[in-house]
Amino acid sequence: MTLLIAFALVCVAAADLQGGLNPGRPRWPRLPEGVKPMDDSKIVGGATTTIDKFPYQVAMYKDGNFICGGELIRTNVVLTAAHCVHRYENSPSRFEIRVGSTTYSGGTRHRVSRVNKHSSYNSYTTDYDVATMILSSSVSINTYTQLVTMASGGSSYSGYTGTVSGWGTTSEDGNISRNLRYVNVAIMSNVQCADVLGSGVITNRMMCAGYPDGGKDACQGDSGGPLVINHSMSNPSNSVLVGIVSWGYGCARPQSPGIYSRVTVLRGWIDAYS
Ligand SMILES: *[C@@H]1O[C@H](CO)[C@@H](O)[C@H](O)[C@H]1NC(C)=O
Ligand SMILES: *[C@@H]1O[C@H](CO)[C@@H](O)[C@H](O)[C@H]1NC(C)=O
């Protein structure tokens, strides 16, 4: 019942946002200096958590500003979204990765020595929205810093509950969150998603998750972050990465699921560029 009440309140808030779907744009973060975000992306309708529950979550900075999330897939490799690095893939020194912190500004800092953006990434359709960042130094594995297992195989994960985390905004025009947040979202099939969003928008490299009434979603600043299944607060190593926060029409709107890069389909590329 508590869940339903909280959900209803969020829906009221979401209903205040003026309708009409925006063109699809990557979930750009809101920048800390108050620069107008190019797009919509943070955790809406979720709860705060701590990094030991999501030890694979990292924060990405560009030119000293927090811009995106990411996840550790090797001790020296971070997986993220292509739109987080787009146009700067040849300038790895402008990026910095922070690991092991509940707040996006803390933790251990690591320089980036190489950025690999998928060569088929399309900034208009947001197709192939995947990139890897090679760190200059390997992270130390401990309670607060761990690798995430990536999904493989042919499952669509339709019907699974996914868990998405990040420091993104808690509403479409909100500020980024100081503490890490997470929310559970229902993964749907690409056929169901196309029924909601229209055909021709959702490619095989994407997956959708959300609820018909909205209210729970990733938002600005969550881009590049993890969507996992089998998440367990007591045993985060059970988590299996199935998606990367990519884009959406606003955040948490009714009939507008969040869209993620589909890890199983992109797995060959990820392994080759790790
Ligand atoms: C965002 O942060 C600014 C500066 O701290 C504050 O003035 C503003 O009220 C905040 N906006 C929201 C929606 O919380
Ligand atoms: C998720 O957990 C269930 C139950 O423990 C297990 O059977 C299943 O294999 C797990 N899924 C993946 C992809 O590891």
Give the key terms.
single chain, about 270 residues, alpha+beta, 6-stranded antiparallel beta barrel, 6-stranded antiparallel β-barrel, 15 strands, about 15% helix, globular, binds 2-acetamido-2-deoxy-beta-D-glucopyranose
User: What is the spatial order of strands in the main beta sheet?
Assistant: 10-11-12-15-14-13
Largest sheet: 6 strands, antiparallel, barrel
Low-confidence stretches: 1-42
Q: Which sequence of SSEs, written as H and E, runs from N to C?
A: HEEEEEHEEEEEEHEEEEH
Approximate shape: globular
User: What number is the mean pLDDT?
Assistant: 84
Question: How many β-strands, per DSSP?
Answer: 15
Question: What is the share of helical residues?
Answer: 10-25%
Number of helices: 4
Question: In percent terms, what proportion of residues is strand?
Answer: 25-35%
**Oligomeric state of the chains in view:** single chain
Radius of gyration, in angstroms, nearest whole number: 17 Å
Domain Peptidase S1: 43-274
Keywords: Disulfide bond, Hydrolase, Protease, Serine protease, Signal
Protein name: Trypsin alpha-like
Organism: Priapulus caudatus (Priapulid worm)
